[in-house]
Amino acid sequence: MKIKKIESILSCFGRNYLIVKITTDDGIIGYGDATLNGRELAVKSIIDNYLSDFLKERNASRIEDIWQMIFKGTYWRNGPVLTTALAGIDMALWDIKGKKANMPLYSLLRGKCRDKLKIYIHVHGKNEDELLDRCAKKINNGYKVLRYSFDIIDPSNKKNILHQPHQDLEISRIEESNIKKIESCWDSEIYISELIRITKKIRQSFGNKIELIHDIHGRLSLSQAIRLSHKLEDYNLFFLEDPIDPMNKEALKKFKYYTYTPIATGELFTNLYDFKDIISNQAIAYIRADISHIGGITPLLKLSTFAELYDIQTAFHGPSDISPIAHSAMAHINACISNFGIQEYVENINNLSDVFKTPLKIKDGYLEILPKAGIGVEINEEIMKKYPYKKAFLPILRDRMGAIHNW
Ligand code: KDG
Ligand code: MG
């Protein structure tokens, strides 16, 4: 089974998605996700101009060999552009392998060890009342775990909103803006006190019938994070994501001794080595790896097994800026690894069902996978062509003195 054609298809459905399509000489087509938010054209270029030359005529079933050839064999290893391109290729090859065997990916891997997956979704409010209303709505719809966020009006300048990134797609977001409009001012002290106040409010309103997650996006210093996490301990969070800059691994290793709250990190990591130290030191409770940025299914399986040895669970990154193919591929892995913890999911992602028909179904707040061969996503390329790429940028934050701040 030889690789005959490699294509990359870039389109925009509110969010830009870069899809890798690989066709074999026996006519099997595999799809993978190679979306890197705000860097789509760079990934497309590395696929079209470089990696496709390495792939033509190779045996499509030799996935580990192809993965190593691209990651190590071409010398310039690592970096999000390369690993995201590699992820798209890796997923497409696993999709082909599953289709050839006529088996869903979870069967081809280890076989299901659970029937349904615990998920969490985003809930955002432009103010406290809206947030509480939206939490109530999500709970009524059966969701059990909520990742909450909210806007804060800056008391010293009412036009400045202290924004938290979110994927509650019914609420407008400042992501994907024009380059001139993306800078805003951040104040961590106001954020810390508002977060404590609002977390208490949510617990008072809904008791313990839901689990709560909050994502700090690496915006705090170690001492701010320690102070905050102490105050949040009473509210029993499922986990706190990226309390401090995830690149500061030494600080993460210290932080675990200061808090009972489980810590999750890893959406920014682009290779297994990024995780090595913090897993072997048990600095975190959940790995937030992103299948499309860490290089695909092949490294994600290795990472999960490594984490299993340290009793660390998975909580893979599942925002709306990776495509339904990535969400589906992660669901297959989650179904067949023993240290699955929870999966981040975007409830409205199925609004794209005209273009991507996924094997995923939400039932009573859990995710289920239907038995379709391979990753199991059917793609309507004709409709896709009608949604051309639109350049967009991620926001930029500055502190009160005008210096760049972690976003
Ligand atoms: O592109 C950036 C998003 O993927 C990120 O803001 C989402 O932090 C995120 C999360 O936890 O979903
Ligand atoms: Mg995050």
Q: What does it look like?
A:
It is a single chain. This protein has twelve helices and 20 strands. Helix 9 packs parallel to helix 10. The longest helix has 22 residues. Strands 4, 5, 9, 10, 11, 12, 13, 14, 16 and 17 form a ten-stranded mixed β-sheet that branches. Strands 1-2-3 form a three-stranded antiparallel β-sheet, sandwiched between helices. The chain is α/β, with parallel strands linked by helices. Helices cover 35% and strands 20% of the residues. The structure holds 2-keto-3-deoxygluconate and magnesium ion. 2-keto-3-deoxygluconate binds next to loops.
Q: What's the short version?
A:
The protein is of the alpha/beta class. The chain has helices spanning 40-55, 63-73, 80-101, 105-108, 128-140, 188-206, 222-232, 249-255, 272-280, 297-308, 324-335, 381-385, and strands spanning 3-13, 15-24, 29-33, 117-125, 145-150, 152-153, 161-162, 183-185, 211-215, 239-241, 263-265, 286-287, 313-314, 343-344, 356-357, 360-363, 366-369, 378-379, 396-398, 404-405.
Query: What does the largest sheet look like?
Result: 10 strands, mixed
Radius of gyration from CA coordinates: 21 Å
Count the helices. How many? 12
Unique ligands:
2-keto-3-deoxygluconate, magnesium ion
Q: Structural class given helices, strands, pairing?
A: alpha/beta
Strand portion, in percent? 15-25%
What would the principal axes of the Cα set say about the shape? globular
Distance between the termini: 44 Å
| Total DSSP E strands | 20
Look at the structure and give the mean pLDDT. 95
